[in-house]
Design goal:
By secondary structure, the protein is of the alpha/beta class. Helix content is 54%, strand content 6%. The strands form two sheets. The protein has a five-stranded parallel β-sheet with strand order 2-3-4-1-5, with helices on both faces. The protein has a two-stranded antiparallel ribbon with strand order 6-7. α10 runs parallel beside α11.
Length: 566
């Protein structure tokens, strides 16, 4: 080393660093080793690829070069002084991540969101939805279109790896080219960076740092020309936020009966076919396999990520075999493309990402609701939350638990035939993970006991309601609950599911006493359950119970025929 370098080196930070390194007699490799940096980092700084190095990085370089105080200060100043001006210049050249595939089936969403973004009052838009629904992909397409068609500067901030809300400010600053600033300084620096010109910042995957919401609000109040587009599985809950719930791709009811030409235009099927043909270009959609392809898309809830993960399996499986394995949840943990983040390489990993962001109480509620196979009422939710303990969880507490899971995009409000009785449901891919977590936690039998108790009570009420003035309403309610009845009856067959007040005779009564609650098309199913349950009775009780069940069916026959008439 030829001695300390004096003040006087000029030029950009990269040019100054190179001159100081060469004067000191170091190679890039030697300087990187002494400073504790990578060779690539030193090279990028000298070439100007990183124009806003962190202050600690500059200090490490100063120490490695043994620079005197004035020279060190000058090098630090060259890295920081023009930060705001350079940020404004650099924002015009910010590159959004490039998509490797076309965006399909989101025309309506794009049109609506573009209208929102054109509204001066909509400065904070949050795209909400479950993992794998395509929030990031849609946000990128929107941001790219706005950047290409207007003078708006666009920045993209990745937050998926951030857990500390304080670090969210650092990530935003880095994306904007602002260096060495704190969270409290960020709003004022952003105001300078905007310089009266429109700016759109995309904050991607904000759900695990929602406590950074006050910072988001401060950014918006600091710069009137700033707009924020946020992707998250939970809302920020700040004033001015406009929530957009992004659902799965369209998959119409009756898709299984469509012609191949019409089916190929259905967004969910179209995406699935394109990903299949990436690995099997000659895959045909025919009248024979069309219904199976539609069933595969439906089993995967028409979620874009789930469709993309499943499609490559048709290179080695038939469509029938793929559907069977999906129905058995065999493929939900299989690894997908390596270029996806780890949290998106399997559907189970995608749901697990959301699950681990929940509080312990929310995790328990999520697991318990996984015991419910279809649409369910708040009363059914309270029953599985209670388990065998009985009515310790009221409907208000269950409603609060459901509201928190809806906020986290893990539960949906479902369509219902009875307007006065709201119903809820999980996407099947989400419920499969919840059910797995329920079993792993050793809580499945307890949750099933709660469901059996709830359905027994509902069946008794329905038997009375179906012969009263509210007959039509009760018939629709029973139809909405049919999946839960089947699940409860299946649980009653389990030797480990034994509610405290539920004897073998009582379990048979769940089927027999609710004879009139089964719609006409399901009467054969009801008879099958009755036989199965009665076989569980001790031999001395079996004959009398069969006679009792037959009597109940005979007495309710005429009423049931009236109740189930089309």
């Amino acid at each position: 080393m030829n001695g300390p370098m004096r003040v006087g080196v000029t030029g950009s930070f990269g040019a100054q660093l190179k001159a100081l390194r060469e004067t000191a007699g170091f190679t890039q490799e030697e300087l990187a080793t002494i400073a504790g940096l990578s060779v690539h980092a030193v090279s990028a700084l000298e070439r100007g690829e990183r124009r806003r190095p962190h202050v600690e990085t500059v200090r490490a370089l100063c120490a490695a070069l043994d620079l005197p105080g004035p020279t060190c200060d000058a090098l630090l100043a060259s890295a920081r002084a023009p930060a705001d001006a350079n940020a404004v210049e650099e924002l015009s050249t910010v590159a959004l991540p490039l998509a490797l595939t076309a965006l399909l089936g989101r025309d309506t969403d794009m049109q609506t969101l573009r209208q929102w973004l054109a509204d001066p009052a909509a400065r904070l838009i949050t795209l909400l939805g479950p993992g794998g629904v395509g929030k990031t992909r849609l946000a990128l397409e929107l941001a790219r279109g706005i950047g290409d068609e207007s003078a708006t500067r666009v920045a993209f901030v990745r937050l998926a790896t951030i857990r500390d809300p304080q670090l969210a400010a650092c990530a935003i600053a880095e994306a904007l080219g602002l260096a060495d600033i704190s969270a409290s300084d960020l709003p004022s620096r952003v105001r300078v960076a905007c310089a009266g010109r429109p700016m759109l910042i995309v904050l991607d995957n904000l759900e695990q740092v929602v406590d950074a919401a006050p910072l988001v609000a401060d950014l918006l109040t600091s710069a009137t020309t700033l707009r924020l587009l946020v992707t998250s599985r939970a809302p920020l809950r700040v004033r001015g936020e406009r929530e957009y719930a992004l659902g799965p791709l369209a998959l119409e009811a009756g898709s299984e009966t469509m012609s191949p030409a019409d089916l190929a235009r259905v967004p969910a099927v179209r995406l699935f076919l394109e990903r299949v043909r990436d690995v099997q270009p000659d895959f045909p959609l025919t009248p024979a396999n069309g219904p199976i392809v539609a069933a595969i898309c439906r089993r995967l809830d028409a979620l874009p990520l789930a469709l993309e993960l499943a499609a490559p399996w048709l290179k080695m499986l038939t469509a029938e075999d793929l559907l069977r394995r999906l129905e058995e949840d065999v493929l939900l943990s299989m690894v997908g493309p390596r270029d996806l983040p780890a949290r998106q390489q399997t559907m189970n990993a995608t749901v697990a990402w959301s699950y681990h962001l929940l509080t312990q109480d929310e995790q328990r509620a999520f697991r318990r609701l996984g015991a419910l196979p279809g649409r369910f009422s708040i009363e059914a939710a309270a029953a599985v939350l209670d388990g065998h303990e009985g009515a310790s969880t009221g409907s208000d507490d269950a409603l609060q638990a459901a509201a928190r899971l809806i906020d986290k995009s893990l539960l949906l409000r479902a369509d219902t035939s009875v307007a006065s009785q709201p119903l809820y449901q999980m996407l099947e891919t989400v419920r499969a993970y919840a059910a797995l977590a329920l079993t792993t936690a050793g809580e499945r039998d307890d949750a099933m006991e709660g469901l059996v108790r709830h359905c027994t009570g509902e069946a008794s009420l329905a038997a009375e309601g179906l012969v009263g003035p509210q007959q039509a309403r009760w018939l629709e309610r029973v139809r909405d609950d049919l999946d839960n009845y089947r699940c409860a009856l299946g649980g009653s067959l389990s030797a480990t599911v034994r509610p405290k007040r539920q004897t073998s005779r009582g379990r048979c009564g769940l089927s027999g006493s609710s004879a009139v609650t089964w719609p006409k098309a399901a009467r054969g199913t009801r008879r099958l359950w009755t036989c199965r349950l009665c076989r569980r009775l001790p031999n001395r009780e079996r004959s009398s119970e069969r006679l009792s069940c037959a009597t109940r069916r005979r007495n309710s026959g005429s009423r049931a025929r009236v109740s189930t008439a089309p």
